Amino acid sequence: MGNAGNAPGGEGVVDRMLRVLDCFTEDEPELTAAELAERTGLASSTLHRLLAQLVSLRLLARAPGHRYTIGVRLWELGELSPLSLQLRETALPHMMRLYEATGENVHLAVLHGATPETSVALFVGRVTGRASIATLSRMGGRGPLHATGVGKALLSTRDDEWLEEYFRAPRERETVHTVIAEAALRADIAQARSRGYAVTREEMTLGNISVAAPLGAVEGLPPIAIGLVVHLDRADERRLGPLVVQAARDLQEDLRRR
Q1: Residues 6+ away with beta carbon under 8 Å from 198
Q2: Dihedral (C-alpha) 141, 211, 112, 54: value to the nearest 10 degrees?
Q3: Which pLDDT belongs to residue 130?
Q4: What is the spatial distance between Cα 211 and Cα 240, in angstroms, rounded to a whole number?
Q5: Structural domain of residue 65, as residue ranges?
Q6: For residues 120 and 239, is the Cβ–Cβ distance under 8 A?
């Protein structure tokens, strides 16, 4: 499938297909053709041709009520990514050990974004259980770097030039406790570097604390962090910090051997 049939503005078929696929979100996993037309701004005839192609390629699937969902082929292709084949498969035993030691949510995330200003923490793995608290994260979901434990751990791996560009973009206040001021956030990053792990306290979700540690660089993979999300009432940073640091070291060593 090429980029043939370019629109006057230079947008090709692939670009338009991506515009359609990008409309689907965790909150709106099913959309009608009318909703897709409104979100993409594509002409009805163009959109319906694209939808037919996407369905035939199994990139989209039809759902009840004349709605569309993401197709299974995207999942099949996504499972071929190094984030799945190399990182998540290797990380799962380490994540399970960390869960067994704590009984808390374990998150695995990577740095994702075309530029520092647009970068986020992309969640690529998660282990949870009945006793774990509910969290907003999901595999394939994104979280702000400044307000999540894994995000702040990832920030601690960036150099001064990268951070200068990152701080040009505004940061949203997720809760009343979210650290958004540059000076305060830089202080948190410096502290994370000195002790080996980052901490966020009720910055993404009220009542929750996150403790996360970054991995060292692994060839072929983006920057990685592993962390825990714990309820405020049972968060013992002095115990959890060394556990996530050790998990990060063990995973890093395992990844570098492969």
Answers
A1: 149, 150, 152, 153, 155, 156, 188, 189, 192, 210, 211, 212, 213, 214, 225, 227
A2: -10
A3: 64
A4: 7
A5: 13-76
A6: no
Distance between CA atoms of residues 235 and 85, nearest Å:
32
Residues 45 and 148 in one domain: no
Which tokens sit at 240? 């959890």
Question: Which two structure tokens, joined as six digits, stand for 253?
Answer: 């060593």
Q: Taking 60 as the threshold, does the pLDDT of residue 208 lie above it?
A: yes
| pLDDT tens per residue across span 187-206 | 999 999 999 999 999 999 99
Counted domains in the chain:
2
Does residue 224 lie within any of the structural domains? yes
Rounded-to-10 torsion of CA 84, 192, 148, 108: 20
Q: Check if the beta carbon of residue 220 is closer than 8 Å to that of residue 86.
A: yes
pTM of the model: 0.79
Please answer whether residues 148 and 135 qualify as being in contact, where contact means their C-beta atoms are separated by less than 8 angstroms: no
Please state at what angle helix 44-56 crosses helix 13-21, rounded to 10 degrees.
Answer: 80
Question: Are both 57 and 69 inside the same structural domain?
Answer: yes
